[in-house]
Amino acid sequence: xxxxxxxxxxxxxxxxxxxxxxxxxxxxxxxxxxxxxxxxxxxxxxxxxxxxxxxxxxxxxxxxxxxxxxxxxxxxxxxxxxxxxxxxxxxxxxxxxxxxxxxxxxxxxxxxxxxxxxxxxxxxxxxxxxxxxxxxxxxxxxxxxxxxxxxxxxxxxxxxxxxxxxxxxxxxxxxxxxxxxxxxxxxxxxxxxxxxxxxxxxxxxxxxxxxxxxxxxxxxxxxxxxxxxxxxxxxxxxxxxxxxxxxxxxxxxxxxxxxxxxxxxxxxxxxxxxxxxxxxxxxxxxxxxxxxxxxxxxxxxxxxxxxxxxxxxxxxxxxxxxxxxxxxxxxxxxxxxxxxxxxxxxxxxxxxxxxxxxxxxxxx
Length: 364
What we know:
about 375 residues; mainly beta; Methylamine Dehydrogenase, Chain H; five-stranded antiparallel β-sheet; four-stranded antiparallel β-sheet; 1 helix; about 5% helix; globular
């Protein structure tokens, strides 16, 4: 099993994402003081709070009127993770669930009553009650990649129309699990999804699931049959490691980021995969379209910044410094508040080198 976790660790470093080793460091780091829980108020409506070591995705729950943040608690000699419940206005912690699995990706159902977290190191997913923070159920994935290692679930998305969870599995070749959201039972597994399934995006109106992978592909999956109908390679012969996705269905634009190879945002035609444009924004990690304001948000981990783009002509409207490594993005229901998780560099043992933050940005 040690070899399996080592291979997952190396993969995590390549993806700068959601798979970390389970084994503790041989040399524990010196203990750090607890994070400063006070919110730091910056210019232009930017609030920032240090939260934990191992912060990853954040999701807003309407039912709980709260922002939930998944954490892997990436500290040497600490097993398990946490799910933080924050006040969406003040970023104050209003609830905390400790878990035996490390939490990474997050999804929320349509009304915000249930949260789903991927447990990448533990090769599973966990369901949480948003009101109480209690664990409602778990599912462990038993498939193994070609090298014998367990898959690392990265992103999870929820389809309320069919009560389905789609979970991307990091491995070679990658897989996508199709899970019953109510019972956490596996319905089917989409095989041969390319090396390292990274990002997922659901286009319910078109009956499509898009998946990005480390082979530089965007897969088009029929949600009725769960068959891969098309495989697009927007970078052509260039090496690409595609990560996260956003969609504007009205203009048939599909956005996909590349942090480490192409270092750009590709704008594709969602009907045929044709590349419409490459945005000259540099390394790009998280991406989110805000239809309320007609804006596109992109995090740049290496640059330590967040770009606010006009979603129509791609002009950079605002650049916000969020050092060291801004990561994932979430909007509140009004579309007027943006949340960003900010990471620190990995140590040699893939633990977090410092306390990581949650940022609240008032957009209006």
